[in-house]
Amino acid sequence: DAKTTQPTSMDCAEGRAANLPCNHSTISGNEYVYWYRQIHSQGPQYIIHGLKNNETNEMASLIITEDRKSSTLILPHATLRDTAVYYCIVEDYGQNFVFGPGTRLSVLP
Amino acid sequence: ETGVTQTPRHLVMGMTNKKSLKCEQHLGHNAMYWYKQSAKKPLELMFVYNFKEQTENNSVPSRFSPECPNSSHLFLHLHTLQPEDSALYLCASSQGPDSGRYNEQFFGPGTRLTVL
Residue A99 is nearest to which of B43, B108, B110, comparing CB atoms? Predict the structure, then answer.
């Protein structure tokens, strides 16, 4: 079973920030938080990952709480092309990913 | 372009047919994966190969037979499938658990399989 819980769906207005939450209350010290997204009928795409510190790249920012029991993926200026299912995955180094149902983000014009 | 290619992109087959799905990665990775994604379901891990050796078989029926001749190629041989096997089959690759790095996976575009 997936070790994370995410809202089933979210809406976001185009041009606004999309904040996608993820709960991982049983995370252990060696486990990373990964985010992927899957645009309709395509393969999942890696977005970002982190262990303890907040991370930022050209696609998104990842905010991890100090106790590491939850995180938030931030898309700073959502576009229509960001409409996708977003997966939050918690896995230890060397283990295999377990995908949950994810959050279906709809970016609205 | 992720560096992982899959062929064919679409496949329709009868229950008595034998077909194969092909995956190739151009990333120099050591681990390769097959996932199944049925309609409105999460991705399910099927098989994992690390340095050409199968390290995971997630209770997959024997009508699915994987083959990994080298670290760059992965096949999924299909025979006597059922209509419920219709799904998107995704291949992925990563550096592998022995690489000393986090295990980011790169996915191919998938093969959309329909079993009649």
Answer: B43
The closest of B109, B16, B24, B115 to B73, measured between CA atoms, is: B24
Chain A CB within 8 Å of residue B86 CB: no
- Tell whether the model's pLDDT for residue A28 goes beyond 90: no
* SS3 assignment, position A16: coil
Span B45-94, pLDDT tens digits: 999 998 888 888 888 999 999 999 998 999 999 999 999 999 999 999 99
* Locus of tokens 């060696």: A30
User: What backbone torsions phi and psi does residue A82 show, to the nearest 5 degrees?
Assistant: -85, -5
Q: Give yes or no for a contact between A6 and A100, defined as CB atoms under 8 angstroms apart.
A: yes
Residue A37: C-alpha distances to residues A4, A22, A44, A67, B107 (Å): 15, 14, 5, 25, 11
CB-based contacts of A21: which residues, under 8 Å, 6+ apart?
Answer: A6, A7, A70, A71, A72
- Interface check for A46 against chain B (CB to CB < 8 A): the answer is yes
